[in-house]
Amino acid sequence: MKIAAIFPGYGSQFVGMGKELYDKSRLVQEHFEQAASCLDINFVKLCFASSDVEIARMGNAFTSLFLVSSSIFDLLKSEGIEVDAVAGYNVGQYAALHAAGSLSLPDGLYMLNKFVSLYEELLAKNGFAFSLISGISAEQLQAFCKKVSTKKKFVGIALYESDSEHVIAGDAKAVEAVGKEVVNLEGTTEQIGPEVGLHSLLMGDVEKTFTPYLEKVDFKDATTMLLCNVNGKKIKIGKRLQECALAWITLPVLWSQIVGQLKNYDVIVQIGPGTQLRDMIQKRYPNKKMIAINNRADIEKLKTMLGLHKEAVEK
Known about the structure:
There is one protein chain. With 315 residues, this protein is an alpha/beta fold. The chain has two domains: 3-122 and 203-306, 3-Layer(aba) Sandwich (Malonyl-Coenzyme A Acyl Carrier Protein, domain 2), CATH 3.40.366; 125-197, Malonyl-CoA ACP transacylase, ACP-binding (Alpha-Beta Plaits). Helix content is 50%, strand content 16%. The chain starts with a strand and ends in a 9-residue tail after the last helix.
């Protein structure tokens, strides 16, 4: 039985995520303590007793999602649950890198915290906009982006979510112009926040500044295959995983391609807050075995699904 683990991105965070597992697991508690020491953030308060507004701030959401998802994965691993491949939805790729055995918890927190600070500096200096486009093909949307883009006012597809749903990002006026073309073709457009990322050469300055920090990180050869969400390749070599982490800044996220590869796995497990990612993929593969892990009961359901013993030593 082949198992794929998928990790959610921004939008899945909520106050209270992971609390039951934190209360019952010393391993999860140790992860939270380590994270607090790394970034001087009270993650217990942030994840369990803050507000929707506070936890939705980009820096808080990115790091807390990484922490909760990584903690749940490590708990599953400690109880004998192994997977054959991992993949992350957008920023969830950082948790996937950790789950692959390549990226340590402190390094992941360190990089995400630095990335957000650089990205927010870029956003403050530029008039970018982000829109979710539905109802047209990627080819049609690419043509519209090419039509309205100039050297000074670029717009491109930042995230390929499905055959008919994508996110575009770039100069605000260019994004608006593409939106008009989409509506004329009877598609729909919805303005969204910057958390999805620009994922284009507009992020060149961020990539240039971020690279020295990323190069200090030891990306180990993976013990589990990672499906890289910017090129769709299956990667285990540490250097290639490092390159994938850097490419994520300036290349579009090919999530629809990753979902296509999930057809090769018998069980798909969302590891991280909520059920949104599982629900999204369930629509594509309604007959596949899928589960989202949010609490102790979910872990026991997964063990039953995999034919493992329910009894486990609590870590």
